[in-house]
Write a structure and sequence with these properties.
By secondary structure, the protein is an all-alpha fold. It is built from three helices and no strands. It is elongated.
């Protein structure tokens, strides 16, 4: 598309800005769905969520411990 006047450029710029704002709102909705934890609806779900989080923390701790043990024996003494 060729632009003959400044008005054509302004119209195209406004159209692109509207499209960007639409995409930005869609991206923020998807981001919210992916990365914000949902509230558990009952006690069983809450306990399962707590157990999953605890296991993730433990697993991360054990990974760091193993990696640090391989890299530096002096630091590995701090972790058991």
């Amino acid at each position: 598309m060729s632009y003959r006047t400044l008005y054509d450029i302004k119209l195209k710029k406004e159209a692109i800005n509207r499209e960007l704002m639409t995409n930005k709102s869609e991206i923020s909705e998807v981001w919210h769905e992916l990365f914000h934890s949902k509230r558990p609806s009952n006690r069983g779900e809450m306990l399962a969520q707590i157990a999953g989080n605890a296991f993730t923390i433990y697993d991360g701790f054990m990974l760091v411990r193993r990696l640090m043990g391989r890299r530096n024996k002096r630091i590995s003494k701090w972790f058991f």
